[in-house]
Specification:
The protein is mainly alpha-helical. The protein contains three helices and no strands. The radius of gyration is 19 Å and the shape is rod-shaped. The model has no long low-confidence stretch (mean pLDDT 87).
Length: 69
């Protein structure tokens, strides 16, 4: 899933920015990078969950086909 890959890359980039601004002592920029990192991580987890769980409707149809056979 492309969305998961892009959210994960965005999370890594913002984490690096968070560490860098924290190291340099730039408090305002650190706050924005940390918030961006939080959003990217939440979206990466959500898109990964959607990728793993799949569609419930297709799983039910597959289960019904197995019962019929």
């Amino acid at each position: 899933m492309k969305a998961h890959k892009y959210w994960s890359i965005g999370a890594i980039v913002t984490m690096v920015g968070t560490f860098y601004t924290g190291y340099k002592g730039l408090k305002a920029a650190h706050k924005y990078f940390a918030f961006g990192s939080l959003i990217c991580m939440i979206m990466a987890v959500y898109s990964g969950h959607k990728m793993i769980s799949g569609n419930k409707r297709t799983r039910k149809q597959m289960g019904m086909k197995e019962v019929e056979e």
